[in-house]
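U., I forgot to send this yesterday:
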Amino acid sequence: MNHDEESDLRDAFELISAFKENTFQAETAITEHEGKLLKLLRADLLPRESGLDDDLYKLVLRVAEEDTRWNHQTMKVINEIYSLRDAGNSNEADLLQQSFMRDCPSRWYREVVGDV
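Result:
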């Protein structure tokens, strides 16, 4: 991921966080830039659901839901990896990390877990 893509993806995650914190209202007009960020986030979290791009309100809701799901999964896996390593089970921790990397569609969350 190049610097611009990483920056845009970070901005997209900040936008969806603002929606979840109720500081960004999906019912109001979504700017062209916000629409671009939401579509980028959809491509990261839901790569097989490009049909969502046509309805930005549904897109916001679905992306917020999926972001929450992968955020929780990421935190859970990181905690488990550290616990396994602390218990001397590095091989099991590595297998868990590899499993997450294989199953998670999001480059963003895979990078987070990959850095553990």
